[in-house]
Write a structure and sequence with these properties.
Blueprint: H1 9-46, H2 48-78, H3 88-107, H4 111-137, H5 144-161, H6 168-172, H7 174-177, H8 181-212
């Protein structure tokens, strides 16, 4: 891979655009994700069948939001790079939803196992779903799924490591109470998590576009 790695200016600019678009998409979707997590916490506290149903729905919904929000940002980044970039959004939504649903099923028997799986599961299913689109305009998509798994795992570890310090309710009510300094730092942490995903997958995608793009 190293002998093909010499990116030109336009390729570095695409990598930057992809990274920022991914991070912005993740950040914009974060209030909705955090809102669902609050509901999950309340449902689990209640226990019983309602708690199980709420957990099932919530895991699925969180990953649908992740796939859709990031997919939208990445779709914008792909404009001008590939034909029919709009296909990226629906496959990202579907991939995220399927991954979330599988984790949700596992959560019915072991919430701890489901939590561990949720670190890598978005990367697995998003990577597989997005690869279907990649092979339409690339000769091959070497390393795409692996890049997604690695990036999502690192990003979510970063996010969850700081989750206890993030003002969830402040983010949910940002339109009401405004942006404080502490809330700004919280959003930077979320943005950084999204940027990790964008940077790692972006390096792989830029390399693929440079070397294996179909004419």
């Amino acid at each position: 891979m190293s002998k093909y790695m010499g990116f030109r200016r336009k390729e570095w600019l695409f990598l930057l655009r992809w990274t920022v678009a991914t991070a912005v998409g993740f950040t914009v979707g974060s209030p909705f994700i955090l809102g669902v997590l609050v509901v999950v916490g309340l449902a689990i506290g209640d226990g019983g069948s309602f708690g199980n149903l709420a957990t099932l729905i919530s895991f699925t919904l969180v990953n649908f939001i992740i796939g859709t929000s990031i997919g939208f940002g990445q779709t914008l980044a792909l404009i001008g790079q590939v034909k029919q970039p709009v296909l990226w959004l629906p496959v990202s939504s579907v991939g995220g939803t399927l991954g979330g649903f599988l984790v949700a099923l596992v959560s019915l028997t072991s919430f701890q196992l489901a939590f561990l799986l949720s670190l890598a599961m978005p990367g697995i299913f998003l990577g597989i779903a997005q690869k279907v689109v990649l092979i339409k305009f690339l000769k091959k998509a070497t390393g795409w799924v692996i890049a997604n798994i690695i990036s999502w795992t690192f990003a979510q570890v970063l996010l969850f490591a700081n989750l206890a310090n993030i003002d969830i309710y402040g983010i949910l009510k940002i339109s009401t109470y405004g942006l404080s300094f502490d809330l700004f730092i919280d959003l930077i942490i979320i943005f950084a998590s999204g940027a990790v995903i964008g940077l790692i997958t972006g390096i792989n995608l830029t390399w693929l576009l440079k070397n294996f793009k179909k004419e």
